[in-house]
Amino acid sequence: MPALPDALVDIGANLTHESFRADFDAVLARARAAGVAQIVVTGASAGGSRAAQVLAQDHRGFLYATAGVHPHHAHEYDDACDQLLRELLQAHEVKAVGETGLDYFRDYSPRAAQIEAFERQLAIAVDCGKPLFLHQRDAHADFLACLDRVRGRVSRAVVHCFTGERAELLDYLDRDCHIGITGWICDERRGLHLRELVRLIPADRLMIETDAPYLLPRDLHPKPAHRRNEPMHLRHVCAAVAAARGQAPETVAALSSANARAFFALD
Ligand SMILES: [Zn+2]
Fold first, then answer.
1. Which residues does 247 contact at the CB level (< 8 Å), separation at least 6?
2. How many CA atoms lie within 13 A of 39 on its CB side?
3. Quick one: CA dihedral 168, 173, 175, 178, positive or negative?
4. How far is the CA of 135 from the centre of ligand 1 (A)?
5. Are the C-beta atoms of 75 and 106 separated by less than 8 Å?
6. What are 55-72's pLDDT values in tens digits?
7. Cα separations (Å) of 209 from 32, 86, 149, 179, 206?
8. How far does residue 161's CA lie from ligand 1's centre (Å)?
9. Cα distance between residue 97 and residue 69, in whole Å
10. 102-127: buried (b, 16+ CB within 10 Å) or exposed (e) per residue?
C-alpha cells in the first residue's frame, strides 16, 4: 500500500447504487487495502444525494458526498429538489454541486428540462461557493454556453469522466476546469484517443475516478466474474493514466490526490 501522501482519491463513485448494498463494507475495505484513502460519493438524484450525504456522515474523513441531479433525472427537478440540494450543500461533508450537466447522448430527460435543471444547479454553486462536479455528453455547445454564464462566479469546476475530443478538452482547460479521467482510458475500442489527450492536461488540473459501479476497466486481469466496478480499481486507472502520460504511477497518484484534496477541500 502506498504511503499516505500518495494515497489515492476517487473523485467519483456511485456508492449509493443498489449493487453495493450487499457487500458495502467489503467494498470499502478492498478500496482501503488498494490504497484509496478518500472517496467522493456522487449524488445524482434528490434521493441519491441524501443517501450519499448519510454515507459520508457515517464514514467521516473517508467518504465525502456531492449533491446534485444528473441530466438523466432532470425531469424530476422541482422547487423541493432545489431546496433539498441547497440544504445538503450546507453540510461539511457535502463537497460539490453535482453531478449536473447535459447528456444529449441518452436524452433520458427532455433537453429543455436538462438545461433548466443545469442552470438551477449552477445558480446553487454560485450561491454556496462550493465547486461543480459536471457531466457532459454530446452536448458540448449548450453545456459551454450554460457554464460560461456563471464561470466567473463559481469557484472550481471539474468535467468528470471526460471522454471527448481535443477541442472539447481545450475548451474546458481554457475555462480553468479540472478534468476527471476514468477507466474509459483502458478501453481499447473507444478510449484510445484519451491516451493522447491526457498528456495535454496540466499537472494541477488532473484528477482520477472510477465512476463505480460503471466503467469497469476492460483490460483488468483477471476480470471479475461480475461486471461491477469498485473504487479498488482506481489503482488500475492511475497506472493507465500514468503510462499514457509517461509518468510514474506514484507521480500521478500524488498529483491527482493533491488536486482532489484541494479541489473538494477534503480534510
Ligand atoms: Zn457522469
1. none
2. 33
3. positive
4. 5
5. no
6. 999 999 999 999 999 999
7. 15, 25, 27, 10, 10
8. 6
9. 9
10. bbbeeeebeeebbbebbebbbbbbbe
Which residue type, as a one-letter code, is found at position 109?
S
- What pLDDT is recorded for position 224? 84
Q: How far is ligand 1, taken at its centre, from the CA of residue 214, in Å? A: 10
Q: Residues with beta carbon < 5 A to ion ligand 1?
A: 135, 161
CA of 98 to the centre of ligand 1 (A): 9
Angstrom distance (rounded) from CA 133 to CA 1: 28
Q: Is residue 225 a contact partner of residue 216, using CB atoms and an 8 Å limit?
A: no
Place of cell 444528473: 70
Per-residue pLDDT at 1 = 42
pLDDT tens-digit map of 111-131: 999 999 999 999 999 999 999
Query: Which three cell numbers, joined as nine digits, stand for 55?
Result: 454515507
- Three-state DSSP at 203 gives coil
User: How much distance in Å is there from the Cα of 162 to the middle of ligand 1?
Assistant: 9
pLDDT in tens, 183-238: 999 999 999 999 999 999 999 999 999 999 999 999 998 888 788 999 999 999 99
Report how far ligand 1's centroid is from the alpha carbon of 5 (Å).
28
Q: How far is the CA of 134 from the centre of ligand 1 (A)?
A: 7
